[in-house]
Amino acid sequence: MSSHGLPARRGWSRKQKRLAMIAGLGLVLALATTLVLVALRDQIVFFYTPADIIERGVEPGQPIRLGGLVKEGSWTRQGERNSFVVTDNGADIAATFTGILPDLFREGQGVVAEGSLLPDGSFSATNVLAKHDETYIPKEIADALKERGEWRPGEALPEGQ
């Protein structure tokens, strides 16, 4: 007993100290994860194919990457305004881009466009990325085409496949 008439308090056991340290580290890790996610919230851009957009009902205005093939006969240009259709052979999304397209941009070739959906369901691109050479299709596009059964056997595999 202590001098105040209370039972003497012993220090924390080794097990209690370890448990407190693990709980503290877990709290710090959760806080750090939350801070990173909040900081990156506006930087995260998801990749979708045209069929994914239709199936998942992507909200207009949300920044996304739209990937697929530039549909044959769909590309028109008026000054710097380019209109084209991105397809995954399962669905089509009309897209527009104002600016100079990459030299490698062609109909029938792979494309990844960054931007957002408009309320009418079309896509407004702020950046357009084209394929690298004749044998390259972006991995995300190739994977999506394979998943949908649209991969044509004569096509080259993407890098790393």
TrEMBL record:
It holds the Pfam family CcmE. Residues 40-161 are extracellular. One of its GO terms (cellular component) is plasma membrane. The keyword Protein biosynthesis does not apply. Heme binds at residues 132, 136. HAMAP family: CcmE. NCBIfam families: PRK13254.1-1, PRK13254.1-5. Heme chaperone required for the biogenesis of c-type cytochromes. Transiently binds heme delivered by CcmC and transfers the heme to apo-cytochromes in a process facilitated by CcmF and CcmH. Belongs to the CcmE/CycJ family. This is Cytochrome c-type biogenesis protein CcmE.
